[in-house]
Amino acid sequence: MTAAATEARPGQGDVAFQRALYEDGNATRRGLHRARRDWVLGNALSHSKKGSKVLEVGVGCGVFTEALSEAGRKVDAVDINPAFLDNVKPLDGVAIHLKDATMPLGLADHDLAICSEVLEHVPPERSQAMLNSLFESLRPGGTLVLTTPQRFSTVELMARLFKFPLVLALARKLYGSAEELGHINLLTAGQAERQIKAAGFRVEGERRFGFYLPVVAEFGGGAGAGLLRGIENVLRQLPVLRGLLWTQGWVLRRPD
Fold it and tell me: Rg of the Cα trace of the chain?
């Protein structure tokens, strides 16, 4: 896209764009984002309590920040996008930090950290540094809830085709909307686990979820979304084929 087109079309760095993902008119796409949101928030709340110190790296539209604030957590919100930070600044118990989380943050002793859909936007040579920074920001025994897309998921394979202008234009015509995801650091589950362990974390839990097939998702409506969830439940049990699911979720602990 040209610079002018980029300015005219809301994108990944826009608060409204990020929030709209959870209300997408397409049942499958809406379900993909809500499933990830619910999994992250469920684990965040179950691994913290009122008054807990929480570090959130990559706040986006603030969906987690808002829920954590309402639940009485004390949140250090970190992002490199000032618009995202300005959006959550008024929330109770939230302190904002314009920082690059691939560098030492100087924010320590958190009970919980959240890093959801951030690693894929970090240069490959810096993702280990981000995990190291998250580790150092937790107290011993603290928990990190982490999500990032799987490298060979159907969503990411489809999105790679959007690098070709003709494919992107056709997708926008057929589906009504389509955007490049800007993902530059896609990891397989094995690659992610090696970086996780190199940072010092212990794996407490993991989950793979979110299945997408273009024709079924875009034209199948609610019935198509239900079919894809059923296929997802089957794929999740299969060691190799579960790599087709979009999201890898991890619950990690810094050892005592």
Answer: 18
Q: What is the DSSP string of 51-110?
A: T-EEEEE--TTSHHHHHHHHTT-EEEEEES-HHHHHHHTTSTTEEEEE--TTS------E
Nearest to 88 by CA among 60, 112, 57: 60
pTM of the model: 0.90
User: What domains, with CATH codes, occur in the chain?
Assistant: 3-253 (3.40.50.150)
Q: Which residue has tokens 């234009």?
A: 169
DSSP 3-state assignment of 242? Answer: helix
Query: What's the 3-state SS for 156-181?
Result: HHHHHHHHCHHHHHHHHHHHCCCCCC
pLDDT tens for residues 181-203? 679 999 999 999 999 999 999 99
Q: How many CB atoms lie within 10 A of CB 231?
A: 16
